[in-house]
Amino acid sequence: MAVFDKNPDKEWIKQRLIGASICILLLFLLLFLRLVYLQIIKGEEFRLLSEKNAVRLQSIKSSRGLIFDRNKTLLVDNRPSFNIKIVREDAGDVRKIVRKVAGLIQIPFQELMENIAKAGKGAFYKPVTLKNNISRDQLAILEAHKFDLPGIQIDIEPTRYYIYKKTAAHLIGYLGEINYDELKSNNYLNVRAGDSIGKYGIEKSFQEDLHGKRGGRQVEVDANGRIIKILRTIEPVAGFDLNLTLDLGLQQAAEKMLENKVGAVVAMDPNNGDILVMASSPSFDQNDFIGGISSKKWASLISNPGKPMVNKAIQAEYPPASTYKIITSLAALEEKHIDINTEVFCPGFLKYGNRKFRCWKKYGHGRMAITDGLTQSCDVFYYQAGIQTGVDALAQYATGCGLGVKTGIMLGNERKGLIPTSAWKMRRFNEPWQGGETLSIAIGQGFDLVTPLQMAVFIAAVGNGGTLYRPRIVKSIESNDGKSIKKIDPEIRGGLPASRETLDIVRNALFNVVQGARGTARGIQLKNVDIAGKTGTAQVFSIKKGEENKSEKLEYALRDHAWFICYAPAENPVIAISVIIEHGEHGSTTAAPVAGALIEQYMKNF
Question: Interhelix angle for 94-105 vs 136-144, to 10°?
Fold first, then answer.
C-alpha cells in the first residue's frame, strides 16, 4: 500500500474550524458570564430599575365647588397652582436635589426639608409636596433645569381663589392642609395627606359637598421619574357648587360702614331666615391661607386687639342692653303684670333697698306706660316691670325667644350666650339671687349675654308676627353643569311666646322708636320706608353718680357698646338687622345709622 502525505488544505480547514469553535465557545462563555452578572450579581438592582421604568399610578386632584351669592355672583373660584413635588425613590440623593431646587428658586432649604419630614416614611414611593403655588418665574427656572433634577415633578392643580378679599371672610371661611388627627378621624372621604380641607366657615361646614372626587392616570416613567407616556386617564369629578343666601352688594356696604370699627352686622329675611349679611370687623384675607399662611401674617392676626379671627356675629357675646327691654315687655304683658295702660312714674331713678338705680335720662321721663316706656327706653319703667315679673320668668321668655340657645346656623363654633336664672347663679357662684340683680337683667345688663345673630333672629320674629326661623346660609347645592343636587328649605324653629295682642303692642312701640317724635332712633327716618327697631347701650364700665359727663373721656376699651336691632318696612318687613359696634357708646348715633343705610340700599330693589 502506498503511503500518502497529509493534505495541507484539509489541515488548514481543520485548524480554522477548531479556532472558530473556540471563539464561539468563548463568546457563549462571555454571554453566560454576562447573564450571570446581570441576573445574579446585579439582578436586584436592575429589577428595581425596571420597576421604575414601568407603569405608575398618579392621582389627579379634583376642583373644589364654586360659591355664589343669592344673585349668582361668583364669590369663590379656583385657579391653577404650580406645585413642586419630589419622588424620593427617583431622586437618589434627596438632600442634594432639594438643595439644588432651593437654590434655583430662592426658597429656604430647611423649609422644603420640613415638608418632606411631614410626609413620613410611608410616603417614600409617592410624590411629596415640597412647595405649593410657586410663581411662573420659578416654574420656568425649574423647567429649564428639569434634566438635572431627577425625582422632581411639577404638578398643575386647582387651588382656591377668593375673589373679593376680606368680604364675608368669616362666613365663607378658608382652607388649610389636613392634619394627622383629621386624617385618622375618618371624617374626610376621598382626602389624603397634603390635601386642603375647609377649616372655617362654609368651607368647613360644607366640606363634603365642595370637595369633589379624585381622578387618576396610569403613566409610564423612566428611571428618573419623568413621564414617557400617559396610558390611561380617569377624570376627576368636581365638587358641588353652593348658592348662598348672601347679598354681595349689601355685604360690601355693611363692611364698608364697619371699616376702622370693631363689631358685627347681621341682616336676614324675616320671612324665611335667609342671611343677607354677616359682617364681622376687623376681617382677614382668606387668600393668605392658601398654601399655608406665613408665621408673620398669623402673628399679626392673633395679636390684633380687634380679634379678626373671631366671627363676632356668632362667637362674640355681649350684654343686650336696652334691646332686651323687648323681652321684658313680652314677659310682663304675657304674665299680666302690666297692660297697655299701666303707668309708672320715672323721676330719673328707682330706689331699691339702700341703692338708687338710675335711669339713662338724668331728670326722668315722668309718667310712662309701655308704649312710651319702650319708645323712649325708660329704665325705671323696666326696673318696675322686671321686679314684678322676676328673673326666672324673664329667663323663660328670653329662652323662648331664642336667646341663650344656639340658633342652629350651619357654621361651627357658634356660642349660645347666657340667660341667667336663680338656679344658675346658685350653681355658678353658690350664692342666692339678689333682687337688685333682677333690675339689671330687666334692662339687659348684668349677667345677660347674647350674640348679634341671636338678636337678628329675634327681631325678625317680632317683625314677621312671631315665627322663629333657623338662619339659612345656603339655598341650594348644584353640580358644576347646573343640575340640582339638593335644596335647603327654610326651617321654622318655633314661635315667640307671645300672643298677637302682645306683639301688636310691642310692634307699635318699636315703630315709634324710629318714626315717633321722641323715639331714641328717630334720626334714621327714611322718606319712603318706615322702620321699627330698638337702640341699646351696653355698659362696659360702671360710671359713678354725678360723673356721667366724663363718659366721653373714658379710654376706648371702657366705653359702652352700641346696639341697634330693627326690621323694615314696619308693617310687612322684608329685612331685619342687628348691629353691634364695640365701644361705640350710643346705639342711636353709632349703630342705628348703619342699619338705616343698609335698609335704604336694600329697599331700592323693592
Answer: 130
Listed residue (325, 330, 379) closest to 350, CA to CA: 379
Task: Kindly report the CATH number assigned to the domain that includes residue 538.
Answer: 3.40.710.10
Among 27-36, 90-99, 137-146, 399-408, the range with the most confident prediction by mean pLDDT is 399-408
Q: Which three cell numbers, joined as nine digits, stand for 283?
A: 376681617
**Strands 67-68 and 241-244, bridge-based pairing:** parallel
Distances (CA, A) of 476 to 157, 241, 423: 27, 8, 43
- Alpha carbons 21 and 309: distance in angstroms, whole number: 87
The one-character DSSP state at 5 is: P
| Collapsed DSSP state (helix, strand, coil) of residue 51 | helix
Q: Is 281 a catalytic residue?
A: no
Residue 376 C-alpha cell reads as: 323712649
Domain extent, residue 534, equals 248-283+310-472+480-605
> Nine-digit cell at 511?
315703630
Does residue 255 sit in the same domain as residue 138?
A: no
For the chain, the domain total comes to 2
62, 81, 205, 322: which one is catalytic? 322
Least confident of 19-28, 32-41, 235-244, 389-398: 32-41
Higher pLDDT, 60 or 241: 241
> How far is residue 482's CA from residue 484's CA, in Å, rounded to a whole number?
6
Q: How confident is the model at residue 1 (pLDDT cuts 50, 70, 90)?
A: very low
CATH number at 80 reads 3.90.1310.10
* 186 within a domain of the structure (yes/no): yes
- Looking at residue 232, its pLDDT comes to 80
SS (H, E, C) 150-172: CCEEEEEEEEEEECCCCCCHHHH
Look at the chain and count its residues.
606
pTM value is: 0.85
Q: For residue 31, is it within any domain?
A: no
The answer to whether residues 240 and 253 belong to one domain is: no
Asked if residue 94 has pLDDT above 50, the reply is: yes
